[in-house]
Amino acid sequence: METHKKQKKGLPGPWGLSWSWIFAGIIIFFLLLLLALWAVQVFPAQGLSADEILKRVDEVVNAPKDREARIKVIIIDSRGKQEIREMLSYQKGSDRRLVKFTSPAEHRGIGFLSLPNEVMYLYLPAYGRTRRIASHVKNTKFAGTDFTYEDMEALRYSEKWSGQWLREEDGNYVLELRPKGETKTQYSKMVMWIRRENFYPAKVELYDRANRLSKLLSLDKVEKIGQYWVSRQMTMEDLKEKRKTILELEEIKFDVGLADEIFTERFLMR
Hints:
24% of the residues are buried. The chain has a 13-stranded antiparallel β-sheet. The protein has six helices and 13 strands. It folds into two domains: 2-42; 46-268, Lipoprotein localisation LolA/LolB/LppX (outer membrane lipoprotein receptor (LolB), chain A), CATH 2.50.20.10. The longest helix is centred in the first third of the chain and has 24 residues, at 19-42. The protein has helices at residues 2-9, 19-42, 50-61, 149-152, 157-160, 265-268, and strands at 66-76, 82-92, 96-103, 111-115, 119-124, 129-132, 161-169, 172-179, 189-195, 201-207, 213-225, 228-238, 243-254. By secondary structure, it is of the alpha+beta class. β9 and β10 form a beta hairpin.
């Protein structure tokens, strides 16, 4: 009996290989598969990591030295009722932005100023003075739109968010963004779709602190004006309140040499 057991244990497996070699081959196969999956996560399309793709996004979105734009604002409430406004927007570099409503009359002059280091100011003509926006109220909506002060802030995503590769989908890279340790934000995460052809964002899902999908930002009608890519229509949809704000680009000028004086409280109050 003992001799019979020894002979059975030594029986060869498929292809004349011993079972120990077969099991070793299976383990090596799965290790290589895991390594390949890891490589896809760290080095997605074009050999770029998720954070490198995010830096490309910043380079494209913030490519102009400065810009001046006239924008139509369409606010649509949960019943489908529309409110139309006009505003001017100025931006210099990636960290200074000023917007001011020009119509209708009841909103004319209301403005927002974003400066480096998360410094923000709001101007309400009825009060005749500016008010600095504290970090704990950055999630407040700006002047009845669906964009919060944080959404309006001029920034570079790669400075405040860490990217993780998710997948490719319909010609887009899809990244999950998590706030870096020092980042103060109303969002627990974002999921960003990025156009593969030019690294310009296509849409962004925004999740609240309870990790629930709360808002959707869509960047449509993307075209190249001169040497810069730009979205002619941007929509912020509040999924909880079932309302949205559409920003339609009516006119834009790049690299006009905007003065630093524009990005001051004094100019905000004009």
